[in-house]
Give the backbone structure.
Amino acid sequence: MPSNLRIRQMELNDIQAIMEIEGRSFPLPYSAGIWEREKRNSLSRTLVAVDDRGEETADLRGYLNFWLILDEAEIHRIAVKEEYRRSGIAGRLLHEMFKVLRDMGIVSAHLEVRQSNHDAIKLYEKFGFMIKGRRKGYYQETGEDALILAADVKGITQAI
Ligand SMILES: CC(C)(COP(=O)(O)OP(=O)(O)OC[C@H]1O[C@@H](n2cnc3c(N)ncnc32)[C@H](O)[C@@H]1OP(=O)(O)O)[C@@H](O)C(=O)NCCC(=O)NCCS
């Protein structure tokens, strides 16, 4: 992982770079309008991982979007640029998210993942998420099931 990788909040001018990663990572990518709404939505947080060799050349390598609802967090999006996968970037993003959740007194984090997305399931399990349930046929375009995963924030932040 590059030592100059920095995690910070998303800015509006990150949206183009996010959408390029999004388009290669998800069958139904979020539009620019959705990302603009995420930026304005007070429940939503988006962290970005940037290789920060100076503002002129900053390269956005991954992002993580989650919502804060009462004492729970819901992860909605996480993706890393293809050529930088398996170098710990998603792990860094999750690590930062758990620190934010701990500091805000959030108790648990939840997410849904396609049952065929073994890479993501492995990532989440590494961070202490456990499979809690299944939504049959949740993804309408393929009819695939979603697995529901959850993690206990206190337990995770003591371990990381
Ligand atoms: C899932 C995704 C975000 C992982 O990002 P990443 O930066 O490559 O993940 P990391 O390098 O931080 O990996 C952390 C751990 O996750 C697991 N993992 C990640 N990718 C994996 C893979 N391809 N195969 C097996 N395990 C994997 C491993 O346990 C890994 O730890 P290790 O490298 O020490 O073995 C990335 O593959 C991606 O963008 N996929 C497309 C979008 C997507 O499916 N998002 C999830 C939607 S729910």
Summary: The radius of gyration is 15 Å.
